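User: For this week's homework, look closely at the record that follows, marking any run of repeated tokens, and judge whether sequence predicts the tokens.
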Amino acid sequence: MPFTVIVPLASSLIAPPPEPEPPATAAPPSGTPVDQVASLQKQGMSNYQIVQTLQQQGYSPQQVYDAINQASIKSGVSATPAEPMPPAEGPSPGQMPRAAPGGMPPPPAPSGPAEGIEETVESVVEEKWKDIAGTISKLNEWKDSTDAKINKIDQSIKDLKSDMDNLHKAIVAKIGEYDQNILNVGTEIKAMEKVFSKVLPTFTENVNELARVAKNIKKK
């Protein structure tokens, strides 16, 4: 019976190469990038573009959403973003989750706005409403003061008009009285003319008689 020697293949004698170690991933940035969001909004970028840009820089969606809300509150706008946030894409059934920048799996999407943000928005709205109420109160006070001044001026005009009417009536009455006095004087003058017209001839005759008597006396 022949003796069979089994020689192992060379490939089976070589050890498999070691698996490459995964590259070291940088830790995600800490804090909320509020200033970066404000700067990107000033550049005219939409919320979707801001989310994509900051996620590429390593920020999580939660950090980006919180930053957008805080930037909106600082600018006096409602904390709810004007544009709908892009939902975090989760793995479909049978599909592996897609790796985020740096090889880290994407964090879960935020469940909703935090209660602290809602309280901040309510406090901002309440403060703005107090300012508006104070302005309305000052406007009402100014309106009441202006109405009082207008009523006082109106009453002064009415009093002045009444005084002018009384003065006009007094002047008309005086003119009428002067007219009556002038008529009376004219009547008296006419009466005196009549008397003189009757007395004057006799008076003239007497004067002439006296002149003749005085002349005769001088002759004697």
Observations:
- DSSP finds five helices and no strands in the chain.
- Residues 3 and 9 are 19 Å apart (CA to CA).
- Helices lie at 10-13, 34-42, 47-56, 61-74, 115-219.
- Confidence is low (pLDDT under 50) at residues 1-15, 77-112.
